[in-house]
Amino acid sequence: MRFFLLLTLLLSFGLVRAEPTTAPTAGNDEITRLINDRGFLARIGDVGNKVGSRASELVMNSMAFLGVPYKRGGTQADTGFDCSGFVRAIYEQTAGLLLPRQASEQAAATQKIDKHDLQPGDLVFFNTMRRAFSHVGIYVGNGKFIHSPKPGAEVRVEDMGISYWAKRFDGARRVSAEDAQQTPAR
Question: Considering 83, 95, 123, 155, which one is annotated as catalytic?
Answer without folding.
Answer: 83
